[in-house]
Recover the amino acids of this structure.
C-alpha cells in the first residue's frame, strides 16, 4: 500500500522539469510576464527539491508563498492555473471577497482546504479508474450479457417457496459454467463487433438521490453538513430503478459501476489527503479587496477579520475534512490583486510576512496584444477561426488587421479602465458580430472565405475608438 501511494504522489504532485522548461511551457499559453513565470517556476522546482531531502529536514522546508501584483487581465490567474495543470497538482482558485469573518454572513475560510481535498480526491479517483478500466470493461460486458441473454428460470416446487425447506426438482445447472454457453458466446461476438449498440434494453441502476445542496452552506457548519450527508446516505440502502437505455449507454453506466466496486475509496482518501498536503496549490484572488487602509470600522472590520482567518491556514494549521485532517504547512499559496486603491502594506503585517515573494505584473502593450492574438496554443484568433470553420467559413486575418486590433486594445485600455487581455474579447466580438450572425447565409450563397484587413477593422470599430464615452459602456 505504501509503495502505491508513493507512485501516485510522483505522478500527480511532483514535476521534474527544470525552471527553464517550466517557463518555456508557460510561454505556450501566456505572453510576457517573465518575472512572474520565473517566480512560480522556482517555487515549483523547490517543491521537487524538498521531496529529495531526508524526512527529518523535509518537514522543516515550507514553500515560499507568492504575492502577484497587477491589474486585471494581465495573466495572474492563468499563470497559476497552467502551473497546476503542468504538475497535475490539486489546484483551487478562490476570491478572498467571498469569505467573511466568523460571526458574519458568508463562507468560512476553512472551506478552501475542504474544496482542495475534494479536488485531490477527484484527481486520485480518476487515476484509479484509469488503472481498473480494462477490468471494469470486462465485468461490464458480462453484466450486459446477463441482461441480453438471461438465464432460464428453473422450475421449483411451489410448497418449497412457502415452507422454505423443499429443494428444486432439478439442480444440475447450478454447477455449470454459464459464461461459455453457445447462445451467450454468439451474443458476445455481436456485442464486441458493435452490432448491438443501438438496441434498447431495460437496465436496473442505482437511483442517485439529489444532493442536499446549500443546506449548510454559508455557515461554519458547512463541514458538519458534508459529514452528516455522507452518514445519512450510508445508512439508507440504495434504491434501484429501471431505465430503458441503448446498449452503448448501458455499457458506460455498467463500466462506471464496476470501476466503483474495484476502487478502494479509503485508500483513495488517504492518498488524496497526502497529495493535497504535499502538492496542493491555492490561488487567493482579489486579496487587495480585503486590505484595510488605516483604522478599521464598519464593514472594514469584517475585511480585517477575513485576513486574520486566512492567516492560520497560510501559516500552517490542521483543517478537518470528510476525508480526514489536512495539514496546510506545505500547501503553496499564491495571492493576487490589482492593488489600485490599496497597497500590499495595507494587509495585516502577519499576513504580509507569509508572502515573502512579491512579483509585479506589467500592463500589456501593443506588441503584447499582437502576440496574444496569434502566438499561444489557444490564441483568440485561432479560436474564432475554428468556430467559424464549423460553418464552412474560412477567416483570414491579415497582419495589418492584427496590428490595428492590438493598437485599439492598447488605446482603449489607456483611455478607460485597464482590463488587460480581456479587452481583446470585447473588441473581437464587436468586430466579428456581423460575420458570426450572417455566416450560415454566406456559406449558402457560396461565400466560403472572408478576409479581414485594417480597413474592415476601422469600419467596424471606428465609432467606439473615437468616442471615449461610448467605449466606456461598450468596451
Amino acid at each position: 500500500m505504501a509503495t502505491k501511494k508513493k507512485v501516485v504522489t510522483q505522478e500527480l504532485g511532483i514535476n521534474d522539469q527544470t525552471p527553464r522548461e517550466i517557463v518555456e511551457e508557460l510561454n505556450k499559453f501566456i505572453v510576457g510576464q517573465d518575472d512572474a513565470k520565473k517566480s512560480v517556476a522556482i517555487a515549483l522546482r523547490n517543491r521537487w527539491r524538498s521531496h529529495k531531502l531526508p524526512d527529518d529536514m523535509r518537514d522543516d522546508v515550507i514553500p515560499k508563498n507568492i504575492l502577484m501584483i497587477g491589474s486585471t487581465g494581465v495573466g495572474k490567474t492563468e499563470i497559476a492555473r497552467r502551473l497546476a495543470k503542468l504538475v497535475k497538482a490539486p489546484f483551487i482558485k478562490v476570491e478572498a471577497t467571498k469569505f467573511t469573518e466568523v460571526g458574519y454572513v458568508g463562507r468560512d475560510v476553512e472551506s478552501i482546504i475542504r474544496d482542495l481535498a475534494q479536488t485531490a480526491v477527484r484527481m486520485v479517483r480518476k487515476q484509479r479508474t484509469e488503472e481498473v478500466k480494462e477490468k471494469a470493461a470486462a465485468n461490464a460486458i458480462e453484466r450486459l450479457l446477463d441482461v441480453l441473454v438471461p438465464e432460464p428460470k428453473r422450475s421449483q416446487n411451489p410448497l418449497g417457496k412457502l415452507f422454505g425447506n423443499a429443494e428444486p426438482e432439478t439442480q444440475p445447472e447450478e454447477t455449470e459454467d454459464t459464461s461459455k454457453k453457445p447462445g451467450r458466446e454468439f451474443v458476445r461476438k455481436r456485442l464486441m463487433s458493435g452490432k448491438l449498440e443501438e438496441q434498447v434494453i431495460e437496465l436496473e441502476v442505482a437511483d442517485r438521490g439529489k444532493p442536499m445542496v446549500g443546506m449548510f452552506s454559508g455557515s461554519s457548519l458547512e463541514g458538519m453538513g458534508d459529514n452528516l450527508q455522507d452518514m445519512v446516505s450510508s445508512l439508507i440502502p440504495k434504491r434501484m430503478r429501471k431505465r430503458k437505455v441503448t446498449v452503448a449507454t448501458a455499457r458506460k453506466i455498467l463500466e462506471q459501476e464496476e470501476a466503483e466496486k474495484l476502487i478502494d475509496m479509503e485508500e483513495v482518501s488517504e492518498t488524496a489527503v497526502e497529495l493535497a498536503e504535499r502538492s496542493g496549490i491555492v490561488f487567493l484572488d482579489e486579496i487587495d479587496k480585503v486590505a484595510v487602509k488605516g483604522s478599521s470600522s464598519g464593514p472594514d472590520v469584517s475585511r480585517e477579520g477575513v485576513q486574520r482567518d486566512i492567516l492560520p491556514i497560510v501559516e500552517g494549521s490542521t483543517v478537518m475534512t470528510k476525508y480526514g485532517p489536512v495539514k496546510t504547512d506545505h500547501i503553496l499559496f499564491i495571492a493576487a490583486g490589482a492593488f489600485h486603491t490599496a497597497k500590499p502594506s495595507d494587509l495585516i503585517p502577519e499576513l504580509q510576512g507569509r508572502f515573502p515573494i512579491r512579483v509585479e505584473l506589467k500592463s500589456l502593450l501593443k506588441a503584447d496584444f499582437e502576440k496574444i492574438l496569434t502566438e499561444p496554443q489557444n490564441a483568440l484568433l485561432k479560436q474564432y477561426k475554428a468556430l467559424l470553420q464549423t460553418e464552412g467559413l474560412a477567416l483570414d486575418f491579415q497582419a495589418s488587421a492584427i496590428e490595428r486590433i492590438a493598437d485599439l486594445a492598447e488605446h482603449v485600455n489607456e483611455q478607460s479602465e485597464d482590463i488587460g487581455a480581456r479587452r481583446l474579447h470585447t473588441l473581437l466580438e464587436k468586430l466579428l458580430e456581423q460575420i458570426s450572425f450572417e455566416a450560415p447565409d454566406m456559406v449558402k450563397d457560396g461565400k466560403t472565405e472572408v478576409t479581414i484587413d485594417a480597413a474592415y477593422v476601422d469600419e467596424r470599430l471606428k465609432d467606439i475608438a473615437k468616442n471615449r464615452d461610448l467605449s466606456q459602456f461598450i468596451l
